[in-house]
Amino acid sequence: MLLGRRTPVTTLILVLIAIGFAFQLLSGGTATQAGANYRPAVEAGEYWRLVTSMFLHGGIVHLLVNAWALYQLGALFEIWMGSSRLLLTYFLTGVAGSLASVMWTTGPSVGASGAIFGLLGALIAFLLRHRDRLNQWGKSLLMQLVGWAAINVFLGFSVPGIDNAAHLGGCAAGFLLGLVLRPRPRYLPAGNSGDPDSV
Predict the structure, then answer these.
(1) How many other C-beta atoms are found inside a 10 Å radius of the C-beta of residue 116?
(2) Which of 105, 155, 157, 185 is most buried, judging by how many CB atoms fall within 10 Å of its CB?
(3) Could you give the CA distance from residue 153 to residue 162 in angstroms, rounded to a whole number?
(4) Which of 63, 90, 68, 74 lies closest to 10 in space, CA to CA?
């Protein structure tokens, strides 16, 4: 799936997280100083950290994994739902993930994964809403998304250093949004059926 004119918001977010990581490296400071989500700082009134942390990462591998996931999920979401809905879902679920992290995590947290899990949850809810209309490709996609979510949640509980609270908070918020989001009138890529009832 190539990024282009149909996915401007996905492209913009990818550029922003790359800029955020470059800022971290060039500033020479810690992730907390750069704007990581950190409970004591948020409780002290630095609420902007709930947003800035979504554009920072703990290392090049963390950045590349999240960029790949965003490339896949963001582009699919944007083609189906539209750019404005992607932007809204990304920020709302990202902030929800940050709030969950503040509630359950004591250390600093960075990464776009809360918002990415939000997109994942929204896509799962959307496909479940239309499960009686899914073709074989749609059913396969739904199973892949559910499986990917389950594996990543398991890894979040098993691997130290993963902010599973942000993942679960973002995914839950995205799932709720996915229950009400409406797709574009013709949301499938060219070459597939454009009928919203044929996924």
Answers:
(1) 31
(2) 105
(3) 10
(4) 74
**Residues that are catalytic:** 113, 167
| Separation between Cα atoms, residue 115 and residue 20, nearest integer Å | 15
In the numeric block, which tokens belong to residue 196?
A: 């919203």
Q: Is 37 helix (H, G, I), strand (E, B) or coil?
A: strand
Give 189's DSSP letter: P
pTM for the full model?
Answer: 0.89
Scanning the structure block, which residue is given the tokens 């609270």? 165
Digit-by-digit pLDDT tens for the chain (199 residues) are: 455 678 999 999 999 999 999 999 888 778 888 899 999 999 999 999 999 999 999 999 999 999 999 999 999 999 989 999 999 999 999 999 999 999 998 889 999 999 999 999 999 999 999 888 888 888 999 999 999 999 988 888 888 778 999 999 999 999 999 999 988 766 543 334 444 333 4
The phi and psi torsions of 44 (rounded to 5 degrees) equal -85, 0
